[in-house]
Amino acid sequence: MTTTSKSPRVAPAAPARTAAAAVAPASAAAPAIVPASTHGHARNPGVPFDSSWFDDIRVNLSAAERRIATLPGRRSVKKDAQAGWLLKAISCIDLTTLSGDDTTERVKRLCAKAITPVRQDLLDALGFGERQLHTGAICVYHRYVATAVEALHGSGIPVAAVSTGFPAGLIPHDLKLKEIEASVRDGAAEIDIVITREHVLTGNWKALYAEMQDFRAACGDAHVKAILATGELKTMRNVAKASMICMMAGADFIKTSTGKESTNATPLVTLIMLRMIRDYEQRTGFKVGYKPAGGVSAAKDILNYQILMKEELGREWLEPDLFRIGASSLLADIERQLEHHVTGRYSAFHRHAIG
Question: Catalytic residue positions?
Fold first, then answer.
């Protein structure tokens, strides 16, 4: 679907495999749960700017659309296996509140839900009662980083802060760097930055690379997730190029959206970004994570994302150190599905409030 001048051509309708992702195809077997706060891979240090890495990128849109259209019928995950996959998804959620009416108490309640995301009686009924389960992170504005760090103390759950003038990213560059540094000082272990979309729309790739390098440096030891705002980049080719350049500049994750655009995460844009992650890993040996965000609210949809991750990148990318899901209401729907699996009945959505 996507090719570059230095990489082998990839058949558009079938996922290729890399040596680092040589695993069996996705099956009904549920992936194991591991602690959500670990980053078990070497960080991506980036590479020098080289336009030959992305100049020749092309996207076969019709082939990509056909690949996505076949996804729902390719795998059937039911019953106990489905419950297992949904429990795994919980461990990858960046549980998020990014509203203008956020309060300290709302953030504290969200942190409590992150620590105990599923009712104990449901976990006991699923045979999971003795195992640790929590979300991948809590994601908040800078104002609430210190509050979240305190509320999560001892839980092993990292705090992610949205930064760099989220969501538009149009504040002065020096203020963006100061905001990152302030969030890191307050205890944020992960920083979700927004790129300047103008750099992509005008083809100013060196400016995008330099901006991302500055963000990476300002984060220090904190992991950095680059939000591309894919719904505002106009073309899938732009999405592919922006993905590659942000990784070249040292992004630890690439992320679809702020959740504030008219179009946010979709399986199609996910496929494009995953192919770029695979290309980058083949070139450099470094694994970069992926985070869909915005509009990911149904348990049935996250199963498709998980299957796509495994088919395109391999089993390692089902773990929270390489896969995160930016969501607020998704957790409530997953808990509803788990309750239905246990009891045979759906409960009202409001019984699973998270904030």
Answer: 192, 255, 291
